[in-house]
Design brief:
Elements: E1 61-62, H1 64-74, E2 81-84, E3 97-98, E4 108-109, E5 113-116, H2 118-121, E6 130-138, E7 152-156, E8 168-171, E9 181-184, E10 194-195, E11 206-208, H3 216-224, E12 229-232, E13 237-242, E14 247-248, E15 259-260, H4 263-273, E16 277-283, H5 288-301, E17 304-310, H6 317-325, E18 328-333, E19 335-336, E20 340-346, E21 351-357, H7 360-378, E22 389-393, E23 397-398, E24 404-413, E25 419-423, H8 432-437, E26 440-444, E27 450-451, E28 456-461
Parallel strand pairs: 1-18, 6-7, 13-16, 13-17, 14-15, 17-21, 19-24, 22-25
Antiparallel strand pairs: 2-12, 3-11, 4-10, 5-7, 5-8, 6-9, 18-20, 20-21, 22-28, 23-27, 24-25, 24-26, 26-28
Helix pairs in contact: 1-7, 4-7, 5-6
Organism: Geodermatophilus maliterrae
Enzyme class: transferase
Cofactor: Mg(2+)
Length: 466
């Protein structure tokens, strides 16, 4: 974003997902309608001032960074658990895995060929080959001890134990493939195509370090050092619920005024994609006692509770019950879509509860901005936010002043290099089909009201598992 419609030049484009959101620094929005002003009165020092009546709660306008910082500073770090190595895939290692054995455990050939002494084949050339006697053959697997004397060769396959005295393997393609005697057409240097004992991992050294993501390569190494179980940072248990008397499940046929509950499905899928163990509870009951029971049970079984259906209606039953379970705050956040957000730590264990809007597009945008970083923090990930790129806007973009706008779009490579992005819709239309076609979010900062066609914008690619 380098241009505005007014012609003002920005000092620098701000990558909204690369900010240090744990710094605690917040900036008041330029159009805050609720300034915090307290009247002062003169009090006689000899008198005890009367207690001030409590001020009515009003929604607080706060920045995206401030709301996200509150969430990230409050989410817990689950204790490590021990899992079978295959079940640990995708998680972070929570221990220093020290090998008790050497890898490899014996000197072995790297490829098929002939194990020889380097000095015996020094100077060998295609037009002046060195001829050696073949005294044996070893394949990968159990093998008895063998040894070489000067002028001898031992045929080996990849992974086979090297005979004592051999310090190099001549690839089979560099020989005539002889069985009794072999002609060597080139002499490799000492150690070529040989894997010595402990070259990979020596006993007493760390094979996998704390904080290492466990993927196929790490599982291979864990198996090689004899570990069938490993300590990992567990997947956070996330309960996903939806609030709204107008909601019906997807198996029901909605009547006029009713809408299908898509949020618990979409948000549970998003939580799983972020790495959580997500549980879709469904639509919250509308009877107070049953609602309280459901929320209390989810607080007991979850590391994080996610509720879709945030709004600011007075007398909302869900908000009342949440407030009975702990300090819960609902605020206006300077973002669009989905400015109304809620957060609190409820229950005896102070479980984080994040409330997002009930409109499905706003719910998923809110998930990307607030919930996904929280889940990755609980997983112990270093990279909490999706990587962003700068892209050329394919058309003019308009955004409300004072609000950070998130637009769905399609980003693609530009033929001349870099990226170009095309918005899907104008930001005021909540269309699921358009969202499903999007592969990115276009981020327009709070102080930008217009981006001209051809201007630069920040783009957050929405890669699955990314």
């Amino acid at each position: 974003m380098t241009e505005h419609s007014t012609g003002r030049a920005r000092v620098a484009a701000r990558d909204t997902t690369a900010l240090d959101l744990r710094s605690g620094a917040t900036v008041d929005p330029p159009t805050s309608p609720v300034p915090s002003v307290h009247a002062t009165t003169q009090i006689d020092p000899g008198q005890v001032p009367p207690p001030r009546p409590p001020e009515p709660e009003t929604p607080l306008l706060r920045t995206v960074e401030a709301h996200l910082d509150e969430i990230l500073s409050a989410v817990p770090q689950p204790e490590p658990i021990e899992l079978a190595v295959l079940d640990a895939q995708g998680l972070l290692c929570a221990e220093e895995v020290v090998s008790a054995r050497a890898l490899p455990s014996f000197d072995q050939a790297v490829l098929d060929g002939y194990a020889v002494r380097a000095e015996d084949v020094a100077g060998a050339m295609p037009d002046a080959p060195v001829e050696l006697a073949v005294v044996g053959e070893t394949v990968a697997g159990a093998a008895g001890p063998s040894a070489l004397t000067p002028g001898q060769a031992h045929k080996v396959t990849a992974g086979a134990m090297l005979p004592t005295g051999a310090d190099v393997v001549v690839p089979a393609v560099w020989t005539d493939g002889g069985v009794v005697r072999v002609q060597v057409h080139a002499g490799p240097e000492v150690g070529s195509w040989v894997r010595r004992t402990g070259d990979d991992v020596s006993p007493g050294t760390a094979a996998v370090h704390v904080g290492t993501p466990i993927g196929p390569a790490q599982i291979s190494l864990l198996a090689a050092v004899g570990r069938d179980r490993v300590q990992v940072r567990p997947r956070p248990r996330v309960a996903v619920l939806s609030a709204g008397s107008e909601l019906v499940d997807i198996t029901a046929t909605p009547t006029p005024g009713q809408v299908v509950d898509v949020n618990t499905y979409a948000l549970a899928a998003a939580a799983r994609d972020a790495g959580a163990s997500a549980y879709r509870w469904g639509i919250l009951p509308t009877e107070r006692r049953r609602l309280t029971e459901v929320l209390e049970s989810q607080l007991l079984r979850s590391d994080l509770v996610l509720i879709a259906g945030t709004h600011t209606t007075e007398g909302d039953l869900v908000q009342e019950v949440l407030a009975e379970l702990g300090p819960m705050r609902f605020r206006q956040v300077t973002m669009h879509p989905g400015p109304v957000q809620g957060f609190g730590r409820l229950g005896r264990d102070g479980v984080p509860v994040i409330c997002v809007p009930g409109e499905p597009v706003a719910a998923l945008v809110s998930f990307e901005v607030f919930v996904r970083p929280a889940i990755r923090s609980m997983l112990g990930k270093r990279q909490l936010f999706r990587r962003t790129v700068q892209a050329i806007a394919a058309e003019r973009l308009v955004s409300p002043l004072g609000y950070r706008q998130y637009l769905h779009g399609q980003v693609m490579r530009h033929p001349d290099g870099g990226y170009v992005v095309e918005p899907l819709g104008d930001g005021d239309e909540a269309m699921l089909a358009r969202m499903a076609r999007a592969n990115c979010l276009i981020v327009v900062d709070e102080d930008v009201t217009e981006v001209a066609e051809g201007g630069l914008v920040t783009v957050m690619p929405l890669l699955l598992g990314g």
